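RECORD CONTENTS
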Amino acid sequence: MKNNSLLKGSMRFIFVYLIIASCIQPCAGKQLKNTNRLVNLTRYVDPYIGTGLHGHVFMGANVPFGAVQVGPVNLSEGWDWCSGYNYADSTIVGFSQTRLSGTGIGDLGDISLMPVTGKVKCSKGTLANPESGYVSLFSHKQETARPGYYSVRLKRYGINVELTATQRVSFHKYSYPKAEDAGIIINLEQGIGWDTPVETYITAENDSTVSGYRLSKGWSKDQRIYFYASFSKPFKNFTVSDTTAVKPGRSLKAQKVYGVANFRTQANEDIMVKVAISPVSIENAKANMKAELPGWNFKQTAVKADNAWNKELSKVVIKADNIARMRTFYTALYHTMIAPSLFNDANKDYRGTDKKVYKNAPFTNYTTFSLWDTYRAAQPLFTILQPERTSDFVNTLLAIYQQQGRLPVWPLMGSETDCMVGNPAVMVVADAYLKG
């Protein structure tokens, strides 16, 4: 089984530059502390690097080590679409809230939202017959990506999409044309790669709030994700479907559930949606939104996401003789901080590999440990740049040991995938221990 590194193709640059950076980092760190200002390093990050060919890296908006990775999903599937997006593609079927990056197996892609206009079927459609579903074409010329922010124009609908995120909440902003039948499709069937739904549930709690869950089986054998979505504009109606037909009412539990919120929009009208996720419950997802994103200031949220990335990138300040080298280094450093990802709630609750809920844990729980890829270089790098998180990483691995009776091999979303050989968690724990 082949599993590409989270840092594929670029990690080799890290230690070369760390040698250079060691000469200037103390001075840079002192300057940052004295001025209380962040160096603008996100300008050197190019999220497109690694999205083509066999790179498999995440494209979209997130914050460092966040639970949310919100971004576009292409219609195409296969090994080169393990992250849901490949630069060679020109189709979009939705914007999902979770993603893998750099792996050789596809999974996640939970809770897909797709803004549309007109009467469309609750199906992705095909390239040969796009009218059989809601797939839209897009152009890279009308697409923007930078740390913590993503935007694209959906050609089919004339809708501009903008995305940003906090740790546990994605923030969608859709700018519609004038339409009597604008809509947002919530697709709980869709996953990426091996992932298939086991049970999904959706309900419209009122005319501006939707919640539910998605239980699925894939590379991670027992995934459970709960969500709470808030709309900036009340929808005029909300329908539910199980892919065969529209069902009565505004709630539905089935293997494959869709929800559709409909609106009447004016030209260039913005409708925003916040989607909070939780590994524990709908109630915790709601609390995550209240804790992290109670308001509706999209621009401010995107600025905070950019600041979060700058804070982490500024831990290593380098100088290079050309912009390309700066871009290579900081993009590689950016890629190291997409995973591991948070797997707990703002109140520290999380779901263990034994499927029990652990409340108010004394450490921050994480998931998405590609340990056989990362134990050689990424995890040792974290002991230097992320000492506090390293403590949480190790405590997560030890908690999994207590829950499943052995150290994890490749833990994902509360399950052991047993992917690849050996037990690299031993080296990760030992390395952190020996470094204090």
Summary: The first strand starts at residue 71 and ends at 73. Residues 12-35 form the longest helix (24 residues). Residues 97 and 349 are 20 Å apart (CA to CA). Residues 71-296 form a domain with the Beta-galactosidase; Chain A, domain 5 fold (CATH 2.70.98.10).
